[in-house]
Each structure stands twice: as structure tokens, then as C-alpha cells.
């Protein structure tokens, strides 16, 4: 994607964040590592305002123009596809709040090392099956489960 496409998308998003019909003119577009700052001049009030547009917002605008879904995860039937990391995040509801982030980070680390999507989903299903037992162990403070 060219730099001009990114800038155009940032400008469209910036204009979408200001009231419609305002007599605005683009003064400058400044790019930093994670966002664009679009400076807009209001011709009636003689003021300049800045609108920060993140790269994610610009990317969503570009995908919307191309007719792609906003999250990029859709199966052929048009239904949103649930990502494995989201499934694991929902599973953390069984864990105490203090344990959730650490457990999720550890699971994501395992998923990164998996060679295929099928292997990742096998791992996720196994973790979901083990989650009630693990949550019980964590909540009761038992290091070892009795058989």
C-alpha cells in the first residue's frame, strides 16, 4: 500500500470526525510511528484543529472502501469467524482476575509456536476442556489435585 493511500484514508477518517458541512481545508498531514495528525483549518472561524487518526482507523477505512469486512475474519457464508485468541480470552472468565492476563499470555505463546491452524485449534479445544479443572485448582489454592 502506498503512502498516498494511507494519507488519503487518514484524511477521509479525519473529515468523518468533524461536523458535516464545516468549511474546512487541509493544512497539513503529519505522520508519526502509529498515527497521522491531520491539521484542518476552519475558514469561517480562522482556527486550526488537529485530528489524530491511528493507522488502524485508516486501515479500516481502506478495507471498507475495498468492500472487505471490518475485522478481516469472515468465512464464505458471510458470518464472522471467531479467532482462537478470542476463544481463550472468553475461557479466562473462569479464572481469578489476577491470573487471567498471565494465563492468556502463556497460551498465546504456545499458539505462536504451533505449525498449523489445525494444531492451534486442537490446542485451544484441549485448553477449553481442561479449563474447569484448572480453574478449580487455581481458585482453591491446591497445588496438587487428589485422585
Task: Write the H/E string, N to C.
Answer: HEEEHHHH
CATH class of the largest domain: Mainly Beta
The CATH superfamily label of the largest domain reads Nucleic acid-binding proteins
Largest sheet: 3 strands, antiparallel
| Percent of residues in helices | 40-55%
The fold-level CATH name of the largest domain is OB fold (Dihydrolipoamide Acetyltransferase, E2P)
The overall number of domains is 2
Rg from C-alpha positions? 23 Å
Please state the second-level CATH architecture of the largest domain.
Beta Barrel
Give me the side-by-side strand order of the main sheet: 1-2-3
Structural class: alpha+beta
Shape: elongated
* Residues in β-strands, percent: 15-25%
How widely separated are the two ends? Answer: 58 Å
Q: Tally the beta strands.
A: 3
Arithmetic mean pLDDT: 75
- Uncertain residue ranges: none
Q: Could you characterize what this model shows?
A:
This protein has two domains: 3-65, OB fold (Dihydrolipoamide Acetyltransferase, E2P); 84-140, no CATH class. Helix content is 50%, strand content 16%. It starts with a helix and ends in a 7-residue tail after the last helix. It has helices at 3-16, 55-65, 84-91, 97-113, 117-140, and strands spanning 24-31, 35-42, 47-54. The radius of gyration is 23 Å and the shape is elongated. It has a three-stranded antiparallel β-sheet with strand order 1-2-3. The protein has five helices and three strands; from the N terminus they run H-E-E-E-H-H-H-H. Helix 3 packs parallel to helix 5. It has 147 residues and is of the alpha+beta class. A hairpin with a 3-residue loop joins strand 1 and strand 2.
Amino acid at each position: 500500500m502506498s503512502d498516498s493511500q494511507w494519507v488519503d484514508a487518514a484524511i477521509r477518517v479525519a473529515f468523518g470526525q468533524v461536523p458535516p458541512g464545516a468549511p474546512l481545508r487541509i493544512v497539513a498531514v503529519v505522520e508519526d510511528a502509529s498515527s497521522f495528525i491531520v491539521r484542518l483549518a476552519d475558514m469561517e472561524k480562522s482556527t486550526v484543529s488537529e485530528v489524530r487518526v491511528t493507522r488502524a482507523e485508516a486501515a479500516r477505512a481502506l478495507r471498507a472502501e475495498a468492500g472487505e469486512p471490518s475485522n478481516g475474519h469472515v468465512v464464505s457464508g458471510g458470518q464472522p469467524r471467531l479467532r482462537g485468541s478470542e476463544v481463550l480470552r472468553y475461557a479466562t472468565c473462569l479464572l481469578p482476575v489476577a491470573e487471567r492476563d498471565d494465563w492468556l499470555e502463556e497460551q498465546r505463546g504456545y499458539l505462536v509456536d504451533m505449525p498449523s491452524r489445525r494444531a492451534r485449534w486442537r490446542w485451544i479445544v484441549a485448553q477449553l476442556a481442561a479449563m474447569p479443572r484448572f480453574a478449580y485448582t487455581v481458585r482453591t489454592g491446591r497445588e496438587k489435585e487428589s485422585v
